[in-house]
Amino acid sequence: MNSSIFSNIARFFGLVFLQVLVLNNINFLGYINPYLYFLFILLYPFNSNRSLFLLLAFLLGISIDVFEDSGGIHAAACLVAAFVRPQFLRFSFGISYDHQTLRLSVTPFGARLSYVFLMVMVHHLILFSLEMFSLNHILLILKKTLFSGIFTIILVFLSLALFSKKYR
Amino acid sequence: MQQIFNFLIRNKNNILFLLLLALSVFLTIQTHSFHKSRFISSANVVTGGVYNWANNFQTYMHLDEYNERLIEENKELRNILTNLNVSDTAIAKNYQDSTSFSRDYFFRSAQVINNNFSKVDNYLTINKGENDSIEPEFGVVTSQGIIGIVDRVNNNFSRVISILNSRSKINAQLSKTNHFGSLVWNGENPNVVQLIDVPRQAPIKEGDTIITGGKSLIFPKGLPIGSIKDFSLDPTQSYYTININLFNDMTNIGYVYIIENMNREEIESLNEPDE
Prior knowledge:
The complex is a heterodimer.
Chain A: H1 2-21, H2 39-43, H3 50-68, H4 73-93, H5 95-98, H6 109-132, H7 138-163
Helix pairs in contact in A: 1-3, 3-4, 4-6, 6-7
Chain B: H1 2-10, H2 12-32, H3 45-61, H4 63-83, H5 86-94, E1 105-115, E2 121-126, E3 139-141, E4 146-153, E5 158-165, E6 170-174, E7 180-184, E8 192-199, E9 209-212, E10 224-233, E11 239-246, E12 255-261, H6 264-271
Antiparallel strand pairs in B: 1-2, 1-12, 2-5, 3-4, 3-12, 4-5, 6-7, 6-9, 7-8, 8-11, 9-10, 10-11
């Protein structure tokens, strides 16, 4: 348990610094940035205290916001994603989530993809809607959500493959 | 009473969620209203420190480029200096004391330690603050063009509203005539900004230079901004909307100058409405 707490703390700070110092400067094709810090919310232990998780998601978002001068957009997006996570977990993994025996690295690829895809898209959609804050830019919002989302998902799977403890 | 507590405990996650969501949406809305983002900005000790630390590495990588820019600028300044009228300089020599003649603008240098350009509302962070007499509403420029306006200041760092910000609006004009308009950004290409509200009578050609107008208290008149890329009439058919290629590469800014208008208070007192 202690090692899990420690690795989550390390992941929190590691991902925040990676995001603000490296990933925010990518700007692929002018506006496509991956938001890999979201990996923290994807990987946070599934059977842990829900209130603490919401609070941590908010803190994670707000730390990115402070660095990016973006008010509370990341905080809101992370919070909503963290709030709907149990529903998406149940949708993607079905029975094994209900029995609390879930480990992301041993799930079938299709289920994992649907979980990551749904979570990332919800997060990005809220993020970019709040960033533009106007319905006139709805096409730009969707465009940014789609392209940045794909970029994020690719990076999420790369890091999962890179850091998974179980080799199969 | 018991039931209320039970209800609160049962729904504590939902309540926590709604509270935090309200807080973050509040912060978001606050940044969307101009000049009011108070609580959270990248010009604080922690984020400023981190950006400063990271920037030390980056600066080292770009030293060659910065040197080249300085040489280029020195060359320009030397050209101007040698072409100055001799009698002018002779007069200037009589006034050795810096207080005996007033100057209109005072320049300070600073380094950009954080730069955004991929969002709709972009800000920069610079490594000078109150301790270096920086105040809000000072202009920020490089030798090639304008960057933005200082927005928030703390002890050692300041936040600058980039011209690549949907809320930035700067007075600019054609270099050939005095027709002026407002410089805004549509959020798309970080190298192209828009000049709107230029009257239809203005003679406009592609490639013409756009400079700052003297009508704001922030920038002196005549600083270069960019060249005209293309233009079109707006829906009312009476004003031009002009796309401008910036001279500055907004994605690659190293050192900047901060401009203080020494006559600001005097001019502002004139503009105050009579009571």
